Amino acid sequence: MAVDEKLKIELGKQGVFVTTLQELYNWGRRSSIWPMQFGLACCAIEMIATTMARYDMARFGAEVFRPSPRQADLMIVSGTVTKKMAPQVVRLYNQMAEPKYVIAMGACAISGGPFKQGYNVLKGIDRYIPVDVHIPGCPPRPEALLHAFITLQKKIDEQHLTGEERPPHLDGGAQGEFPVPEYGEHDLEPPSNPGVWPVPITIR
């Protein structure tokens, strides 16, 4: 049951803080997100700059980048995803701790960017893993990554512990791991994960 905001403000003035288990749970998760330490291309330089003193991503709860996917719950896909690298990205995602999130940083991670028509570049990492926040730009500035991080925190704040709107990690029937694509004769097999990115039907 939601607590009236005016009542919470008045109680707060008296030193009494009222909250719900859901708000406390989501506050703890959004305030302790651990990104995974890896970068794919030039966008990784902007990601590194976001953690430096001028921008200081630690202010928002992403205090430390973890070197192991088993200790991380946020993947920032920063840069061009080649078809040679795509299986490794999916494999790392599968090894991350639940609940886990993905930020696609830059035009290359979103759609292939200037290399979209190339034979060796994936046209968006969202073909294989679910992406929570997309950041356009080539490359996006550190402020854009901070904005995406805050957007992700707002998304976590709005998640419910029960009901149909609960996040996948609280749903026992939800898919937690996704198939790792393999190198086929001409392309990756499968070319996309139908559970994440259904192939659009073209009528001609």
CATH class of the domain at 17-156: Alpha Beta
CATH architecture of the domain at 17-156: 3-Layer(aba) Sandwich
CATH names the topology of the domain at 17-156 as: Rossmann fold
Rounded radius of gyration (Å): 19 Å
> Termini, distance in Å?
51 Å
Q: What helical percentage do the residues reach?
A: 25-40%
Shape: globular
Strand content: 5-15%
Strand order of the biggest β-sheet: 1-2-3
* SSE class: alpha/beta
Order of helices and strands: HHHEHEHEHEE
Mean pLDDT metric? 87
Low-confidence stretches: none
Give a verbal description of the structure:
This protein is an alpha/beta fold. The chain has a domain at 17-156: Rossmann fold (3-Layer(aba) Sandwich). It contains 6 helices and 5 strands, in the order H-H-H-E-H-E-H-E-H-E-E. The protein has helices spanning 5-13, 21-30, 43-51, 86-95, 107-111, 142-157; strands at 74-78, 101-105, 133-135, 182-183, 188-189. Strands 1-2-3 form a 3-stranded parallel beta sheet. A two-stranded antiparallel sheet has the order 4-5. A hairpin with a 4-residue loop joins strand 4 (182-183) and strand 5. Helix 2 (21-30) packs antiparallel against helix 6 and helix 3 (43-51) crosses helix 6. The radius of gyration is 19 Å and the shape is globular. It starts with a helix and ends in a 15-residue tail after the last strand.
